[in-house]
Design goal:
With about 700 residues, the chain is an alpha/beta fold. It is about 20% helix and about 20% strand. The radius of gyration is 27 Å and the shape is elongated.
């Protein structure tokens, strides 16, 4: 560690995960920042979060305080809570990639917390939120990572603020990390094993002019400080309090067996393109942190957000690597979902390359070996790497699963082969690369797009509230409204919508791989047809908890499905189904049949039976697995099904029927009606039935 030598530094303690930034000791604070082309560096110290100007400015002395490209100095007497900025001078030569501004107050790239908002810039000086010196000490009371296998995981994607901000949430501190703690009993009752939090890294609350932006960034995909938890989700507004409250949330979730996965945005920052403000990276080393065009005045834009982080430059790669280690080591985070992860597969010139250094580094790092790594394996510039991102260490959001399941239940023809592949773990995408089924993160809906209720209520997106004349958002949703656009009081239509929601939830939770549920889908949350609610910090996006009371039937159905999945190793294989029999006297691990009970004709497009047999003793030593028979009628008319001959040696009980009303739609205790071997099985249109074999 490079620093000005001080006689009282012998007892300084450093975390190996964060070698830069503001490092606190008993005697003061060490400040270290990288800049290769700066000609001078200053440290600005503030007394109060509302101060326009620093009360103290310390100039780094290059002959003493610069080692190579690292600027470092120690300031005795400073304590946790100290507010600061950096200020760097150097060439302003956009044509050479340099954008130094001696007046700009700069956020430390390694800042552990920010305080305040953008302040008045009428004098031409942009004043971003202030960095906070943080004491990372926290009483974890023995808390450690849960280390649950991905194959055992059920993910719940949620927005920290939106989860409890609505007046109906009933929590003491709505819209905060503490509010999430109040809802842990609900999460436990639902049965999910992990929450995937939409971005909680710092992003702007106000615009760089100190005013509310015309379009508010509600989702948070506009990073400003990668090491800092978002101050807007803390109840206590004391600078740095968000660090403690976030840790309290993680600790409380872990205490109930729920893992925490962070959605991280290492593909762009809020500094935007050449017209955007200089807040941090631009003013320290623009050409290192960002990908620039051949004409270096301009930024490559693979993110669709104005700039692209240069993730495979050694300096930036090191920062991302340190950041991940910091969240795992200091916050006990269990995993990460990487937004637009294909950008991390691009070299310093923007070319997609095999074995990109940052992707390989993350996969091989020993401190991150317990953390789940999930890629959104595409970007905004056309890269689509679903099935081929990184090594077996990486799981992926399976966009093919989403699209195929939506199309199957909409009634598109010729989709049953795709349904069978998705149910079986998407071997077409992952097996050839040596990746197991749990590399597939299966989902039907996510924050990005329609909710599940809106999937069956709208033919078209309705994003007028976003202020972009409904031009934003995906036009290809594979949705259907069943006769009326939007809400309806017509019971036949609403009943069919509910059935379709149950069909898609059943498909999701009975598929091999890892299911991810969008928060609120379990009780029909709606965004009123908005499929791109990134700027809707209001009741369009907030979860209305009254819906959990009016849709108890669907909530009960979802809870029972999740519990069934968790109890059945038949549905959570760690290797692919083969369609072969493990022994001469045993059935194949999976087999497929047409409605008449004979071998599946893949040219017929609407009805199918899937027979899953329980895993062998070596996989299921306690013998809790059951044989499962799933019948799908995705067509528009009722269809009679016959039990396959090979299944008639079993005694079957109905587990669920998506066409029935509660409580006959699902039998959580596996005590549903017995299926007679001679019984006619008629599935109404758009219906799934699931049967479970009695224990032998």
């Amino acid at each position: 560690m490079l620093m000005r030598r001080q006689p009282h530094l012998e007892h300084m303690q450093f975390t190996h995960t964060v070698p830069y930034g503001a490092i606190l000791s008993e005697d003061g604070v060490q400040f270290l920042v990288f800049s290769r082309n700066a000609t001078s560096m200053k440290l600005l110290l503030y007394k109060d979060v509302d101060d326009l100007d620093p009360h103290r400015v310390i100039t780094f002395r290059p002959e003493v305080d610069r080692w190579g490209d690292i600027w470092g100095l120690f300031v005795p007497g400073l304590k946790a809570g100290q507010l600061y900025h950096f200020q760097a001078d150097g060439p302003f030569e956009p044509e050479n990639g340099h954008r130094f501004d001696p007046k700009a107050r700069l956020i430390d790239p390694y800042a552990k917390a920010l305080a305040g908002t953008f302040m008045d810039s009428s004098d031409g000086i942009t004043r971003p939120p202030k960095c906070v010196v943080v004491d990372d000490h926290f009483d974890w009371s023995g808390d450690r990572h849960i280390r649950r296998s991905l194959s055992e995981t059920v993910i719940y994607e949620m927005h920290v603020r939106g989860f409890t901000q609505h007046a109906s949430s009933g929590v003491k501190h709505p819209g905060t990390y503490l509010g999430v703690i109040d809802k842990i009993p609900y999460l436990k009752s639902l049965g999910v094993t992990a929450v995937e939090l939409m971005p909680i890294n710092e992003f702007p609350i106000l615009g760089s002019d100190g005013k509310p932006p015309r379009i508010r960034n509600y989702w948070g995909y506009d990073s400003m400080a990668f090491f800092s938890p978002h101050r807007g989700y803390a109840y206590d507004k004391t600078p740095g309090a968000q660090v403690r409250e976030f840790k309290e949330m993680v600790k409380a979730l872990h205490a109930e067996g729920i893992e925490v996965i962070l959605d991280v945005v290492f593909n762009h920052t809020c500094e935007g393109n050449e017209h955007g403000p200089t807040l941090s990276f631009k003013g320290l080393e623009n050409s290192v942190y960002y990908m620039l065009e051949r004409d270096k005045r301009y930024y490559k834009n693979y993110s669709g957000c104005g700039n692209t982080v240069n993730g495979n430059h050694p300096i930036t790669r090191e920062m991302i690597f340190h950041c991940l280690r910091y969240w795992v080591h200091n916050y006990h985070i269990d995993g990460f979902r990487f937004d637009l992860a294909s950008i991390l597969s691009r070299d310093r010139h923007g070319n997609l390359v095999p074995n990109p250094p940052i992707v390989e580094t993350i996969a091989e790092d020993p401190l991150l070996s317990d953390a789940k790594m999930i890629a959104e394996a595409w970007d905004a510039a056309g890269a689509y790497q679903v099935g081929s991102f990184g090594s077996a260490r990486w799981a992926e959001w399976n966009g093919r699963f989403r699209d195929d399941v939506r199309r199957v239940w909409r009634g598109d023809s010729g989709m049953l082969g795709a349904l069978a592949t998705r149910l079986s773990g998407s071997s077409d995408l992952y097996q050839s690369g040596g990746r197991p089924p749990y590399c597939s993160i299966n989902f039907v809906t996510s924050h990005d797009g329609f909710t599940l209720n809106d999937m069956v209520s709208y033919n078209q997106k309705h994003n007028q509230a976003n202020g972009e004349d409904n031009r934003d958002g995906d036009n290809n949703n594979h949705s259907f409204n069943y006769g009326i656009e939007g809400p309806t009081d017509r019971k036949p239509i609403d009943g069919l919508r509910l059935r379709q929601i149950k069909n898609m939830l059943t498909t999701l939770l009975l598929s091999q791989g890892v299911p991810m549920l969008l928060a609120g889908d379990e009780f029909r949350r709606t965004q009123r047809g908005n499929n791109n609610a990134y700027c809707q910090d209001n009741d369009i996006s907030w979860i209305d908890w009254k819906l959990a009371e009016t849709n108890t039937e669907l909530l009960r159905f979802t809870q029972a499905l999740i519990q069934f999945r968790k109890s059945q190793p038949t549905l959570r294989r760690e290797s692919y189904l083969t369609g072969k029999s493990p022994a001469a006297d045993q059935l194949p691990d999976v087999s497929w049949y047409g409605p008449v009970g004979t071998a599946m004709d893949w040219h017929q497009s609407q009805q199918m039976t899937c027979l899953l047999t329980k895993p062998p003793k070596k996989i299921d030593p306690q013998g809790v697995g059951r044989d499962i028979m799933i019948m799908f009628n995705t067509g528009e008319v009722a269809s009679e099904f016959h039990m396959p001959v090979v299944a008639k040696d079993h005694k079957w009980r109905l587990f669920l029927d998506t066409a029935e009303d509660s409580p006959k739609d699902i039998f959580p205790e596996l005590n549903g009606p017995i299926l007679s071997k001679r019984q006619r099985i008629v599935l109404p249109s758009k219906t799934t039935m699931v049967f479970v074999a009695e224990k032998s």
